Amino acid sequence: MEYERQKPANNSEIPERKKPKTNKRTLDKIARVKGEPFFNNKEIAKQARVTGPDCRCARSKWFEKITEDKRNTTLTKFNMLESKDAQDSHLAVRGHSFLSNGRDFSIIEKHKKTATVEVRSEWDKIIKEAREKPSPYEFVNVNSNMIFDLSSNISQYFLKNPKPPVKNSKNA
After folding, report:
1. Residues in CB range of 51: below 8 A, 6 or more apart
2. Is the pTM of this model over 0.85?
3. Where is region (Disordered) located (predicted)?
């Protein structure tokens, strides 16, 4: 007896895929990311995500200054983001910056890896030419007079000879 492959009803060789928005698993995942109620893989109903109680740890005193209404609106806007990637871009991890300065440094680092430099002034040229679009980087050579001299400006607030004088532990 020969095995004969069954063809779909529309006589196509490849069966049709389900539309992604109608797939039950996809709908549950979208609901979970949005913070809405959903069913997990064991068909257990999970509640919608809610704002928890105020944080009482010492590190986050700023949390008390924000009203509950603002916290709820922030959380709902966060939950309205379309994907996990969009949420991760708002919760940046150190070293994985999506900010413009992080991108700028990564572009410069890529150009540094391939460059061979013999003189310091060539580094300036590499940094200037690292990006062409939308515009090249602006490079400023820093002189010593451009840097704030802290020691000369702070000396007026301290005595040169402290009172009472500091005793050396060797002589005491």
Report:
1. 68, 71, 72, 75
2. no
3. 1-26
The mean per-residue pLDDT over the stretch 82-93 comes to 70
Contact 98, 92 (CB under 8 A): yes
Dihedral angle sign, alpha carbons of residues 131, 132, 134, 138: positive
Print the SS3 string covering the chain: CCCCCCCCCCCCCCCCCCCCCCCHHHHHHHHHHHCCCEECCCCCEECCCCCCCCCCCHHHCHHHHCCHHHHHHHHHHHHCCCCHHHHHHHCCECCECCCHHHHHHHHHHHHHHHCCCCCHHHHHHHHHCCCCCCCCCCCCCCCHHHCCCHHHHHHHHCCCCCCCCCCCCCCC
The per-residue pLDDT for 1 is 45
What whole-number distance in Å separates Cα of residue 140 and Cα of residue 127? 11
Mean pLDDT of the chain: 76
DSSP strand pairing (38-39 vs 45-46):
antiparallel
